[in-house]
Design brief:
The chain is α/β, with parallel strands linked by helices. The protein contains 16 helices and 11 strands. It folds into 3 domains: 184 residues, Rossmann fold (3-Layer(aba) Sandwich), CATH 3.40.50; 78 residues, Roll (Ubiquitin-like (UB roll)); 85 residues, de novo design (two linked rop proteins).
Length: 371
């Protein structure tokens, strides 16, 4: 990823030169997909919004980044906000939007002042008559979900909403709205300008029991041994977690890290956050910590998530207290599966991933607690 402190707006100028249709064609051919976790083709998302007849459209940059262990968007906001803003302007141009928003995680509010200065500077340089407003999040994890962002920006409680309609069709104030995350928008001008831009490069957020945590850029398919040689494990490793919602699996030095290889283990890559877990930790303790997080962050709108996350915590506490038996392990698995199948949004549908994957890969840790 290019770090350009003095942006020349080459991507924006090129976009205006070749026109909206050509921009979509280039982004489609280059294979740019969303970096927020879903991996949806950006050109297809923009085309869907343009296909809706509307006098007004909106663009939102999702800078909420509330997933534990994920901090690569913060790295961009601190070191390369110019290119992200340029990507936002290109999106506004293609989508004919006059009003844009940056939904900034509440804990990142200290970045607001410099971000506002950069926005003012780049808007002046671009000569585009659009507005970019920063909306500060209130610290709710659920607001990373696209429909909850819409509700929050409109001044409502940040609850997830039923889909369809999707935001690209009916978003802010009932108008088509495109939501892309920070890294995705930062890639837009780069994909347009550089012929050798590689769609397979990703930013990885690395943390946990390693000597050199931080943000790294690797190509999909990178060997786990390469990652470990770079970050230097702090002792023998036992497992790795992909944030909270991505699940937990053993560390395999021979693994080629990609969406497919991770999914084969029952996990999800998400935004490529890897939390390395040393052998001194019991996986049940890790799962209890994650389960408490989900209980706290549930918006409470749907019953499976509101009530189910509490039940998961209570069952894990029972296991840890050595008052559980095998039937409780079975019940824990059934609850996790049921909540995932019946919850309204991605929070509920992912809140059991850490439990299901840990039961698959680290069942011994659970059995050691049984009476």
């Amino acid at each position: 990823m290019q770090i350009l402190r003095e942006t020349k707006l080459e991507g924006l100028r090129l976009a205006k030169k070749i026109g909206r249709a050509k921009v979509l064609e280039v982004l489609s051919k280059k294979g740019l997909v969303g970096r927020g976790g879903a991996g949806f083709p950006i050109a297809k998302k923009w085309e869907t919004s343009l296909g809706v007849k509307a006098k007004e459209r909106y663009v939102i940059c999702n800078a909420d980044e509330g997933e534990p262990g994920t901090f690569k968007d913060k790295f961009i906001l601190k070191n390369n906000p110019e290119t992200m803003i340029e990507g936002l302007l290109i999106a506004a141009y293609v989508l004919k939007a006059k009003r844009c928003f940056i939904y900034l995680r509440g804990e990142y509010d200290y970045l607001r002042e410099e971000l506002e200065e950069k926005i003012s500077e780049i808007l002046k340089k671009s000569k585009m008559k659009i507005s970019i407003e920063i909306v500060r999040g209130a610290g709710a994890y659920i607001c990373g979900e696209e429909t909850a962002i819409l509700q929050s920006i409109m001044g409502n409680r940040g609850n997830a909403m039923y889909k369809p309609p999707h935001p690209t069709v009916e978003g802010l104030w009932g108008k088509p709205t495109v939501i892309n995350n920070v890294e995705t928008l930062t890639c837009v001008p780069q994909a347009l300008v550089y012929d050798d831009w590689n769609p397979d490069y990703r930013l990885f957020s690395i943390s946990g029991d390693v000597c050199h945590p931080g943000v790294y850029e690797w190509e999909l398919g990178v060997k786990m041994s390469t990652i470990l040689d770079t970050v230097k494990p702090n002792g023998k490793l036992k497992a790795m977690a992909f944030g909270c919602f991505g699940g937990i699996m053993p560390v395999n030095k021979n693994l080629s890290v990609s969406q497919n290889t991770i999914c084969k283990e029952g996990c999800q890559h998400g935004a490529f956050s890897i939390i390395f877990i040393g052998e001194k930790h019991n996986i049940v303790d890790i799962c209890l910590s994650i389960a408490k997080f989900y209980t706290y962050e549930s918006c409470g709108k749907c019953t499976p998530c509101r009530e189910g996350t509490i039940r998961l915590v209570n069952l894990l506490k029972k296991i840890k207290s050595k008052k559980a038996d095998k039937s409780d392990i079975k019940l824990l698995k059934e609850f996790a599966e049921h909540i995932q199948e019946t919850s309204l949004c991605g929070l509920g549908r992912s809140c059991g991933n850490h439990i299901l994957t840990s039961l698959k890969h680290f069942k011994k840790d659970y059995m050691g607690y049984l009476k």
